[in-house]
Design goal:
Layout (H helix, E strand, L loop, with lengths): L1 E8 L4 H12 L4 E7 L4 E6 L6 H9 L4 E2 L3 E2 L4
């Protein structure tokens, strides 16, 4: 299991955040997705080898938002 944080520009409300979360969860291989409207990012847990990170940014961009470069979250 891997976790990345993806910056998301253009979200202005809770509905926006919900749309992004649902789109990310629909990507094959994603186990969980949480969207933080205040921080303007999404944290995604996915199965290693099951998806390409471009699929995450594409899912966000197709909604009309602007996805930044995914960054790995360090395990604690």
């Amino acid at each position: 299991m891997r976790t990345v944080t993806v910056p998301v520009n253009g979200m202005i409300c809770v509905v926006c955040a919900g749309r992004v979360k649902n789109a990310l969860k629909a990507v094959h291989g994603v186990q969980d997705a949480e969207v933080n409207l205040e921080k303007r990012n999404a944290t995604v847990q996915y199965e290693n080898g099951k998806l390409n990170l471009d699929q995450l940014t594409r899912a966000i961009n197709e909604l009309g938002y602007k996805a930044g470069v995914p960054a790995a979250v360090e395990s604690r």
